[in-house]
Input
Amino acid sequence: MATDLDENTITAEAFCRLENTPDPRLHEIMKALTKHLHELARELKLTEDEWMKGIQFLTAAGHMSTGSRQELILLSDTLGLSQLVVAQSHSRPKEVSEQTVLGPFHVEGAPQLPSHGAEIARGSVGDPLLVSARVVDADGKPVADAVVDVWHAGADGFYDVQDPAWKLDESRLRGVFHTDEDGRFSYWTILPLYYPIPTDGPVGEMIRATKRHPYRPAHIHYRITHAGFDPLVTHIFVDGDEYLDSDCVFGVRSSCIGHYPKHEAGTAAPDGSKQPKAFYTNDSTFVLEREHAANAAE
Amino acid sequence: MATDLDENTITAEAFCRLENTPDPRLHEIMKALTKHLHELARELKLTEDEWMKGIQFLTAAGHMSTGSRQELILLSDTLGLSQLVVAQSHSRPKEVSEQTVLGPFHVEGAPQLPSHGAEIARGSVGDPLLVSARVVDADGKPVADAVVDVWHAGADGFYDVQDPAWKLDESRLRGVFHTDEDGRFSYWTILPLYYPIPTDGPVGEMIRATKRHPYRPAHIHYRITHAGFDPLVTHIFVDGDEYLDSDCVFGVRSSCIGHYPKHEAGTAAPDGSKQPKAFYTNDSTFVLEREHAANAAE
Output
């Protein structure tokens, strides 16, 4: 009889209910989820009030999540879950670029831009930065026509999507490039600064209640895809940032810390443009990993 | 250096970030949550696609939750978490009524009704049922002026709040009673039947993907409160129901199975009313537990 279940006997009964799950992986996931949820509640002797606060917290996080703001990803990021999953999903050779978290601010369908010459700050105020990058394979050969999504926060710490008036076709600090025949792309933007994750939602409450700092070290997000290669989701962090050692979402890989040297006003060497004020440059190389035969065959 | 964290080293670093939490209970909860989330992801070797499906599932559950529909409670109920928390929160003496899950369909502010004589079906079609109940303390003494929330599904399996046109002041199968001087209240309604939990949301997807049945045995919900007593949240199930042994939310306590005898048309003995068709009765006694001195002092 599956009645009168107590806090211990209920777990075996919950497993029984999952026994007819046709997909073995789903069965495994549901069983492990049930086991850990139950163990968590028992270990804590979770009370009904605490349970209700948890329900309300997750509900509020769901309500806050829209096409351009994902509070549940932010929650996963700040609990270290996102980076854990990224880390265990990419045991890639050392010669290819390391992955880090996607974060909550990527959007699909950002404006398509030319491989070279675009300016993505579009009025966002900050120190000019010229990024010159190359996408290659593990043998160092250029990957032409790779699709490169770029997005980063402004000097005020906000991504464009955090502005209530944001529209996809008026994106700032965001764009999609295609690498040229030599695997290269470049663009002007502004130097990103460290910034706090958004703290106006339930994750912000958690950050305050646990007296953590909410900062991420300055970085630019990249997602680089090309048929035949494993998609690369990564950042290029700004070296010297004071939060490199305590990123609120645990995402810093030392191999992803980039050099952003400062230059006096004048002619910018990489593209010959005249710069009326001091500017920064960053040269980065992204190394893609070929899809494994097993993956490619799927 | 808290950079280059892998799927194993990230857990200790996540614990470090929680170390300044001022509230010791919150610290304990956050640490245990982090530990189990990380263990779950490692044990499963959760992939990025699976993680994203989880994010989307919780987001959809949040979006579906409103003032009158709580998909995250339904998720907790169907995973056995709710009943586990209820069970470990009430290690009450045998002589007092057992608790079970609140469920996702309770609403605050339902219509106030007289202690006796109300009819709460309000047009919902089914077999008439007269409930006559008494609220007492552990010594069997009546508890007058207890506030009794009642809610149950119709014969179609739906709660009133599941009707998009539902308004609080036009509630059906729902109401708030105050016990009389002898601790009694009574009302006419219709006999509830077993019903499926709502399967039009992400929890329904889970139920289908795991090939579980979605049914709950027939029951009436009660929440009974009175100053000086521990609030009682329980059901009175209908004996003989085929799903008593496999309640989709694990909520059946054998002490909460009630007798609902059928009577031929005629005069209803308890209130002397003339009944033109066969009807059912249920006599229930609810035994409240006095608040412990420790709780009362809070």
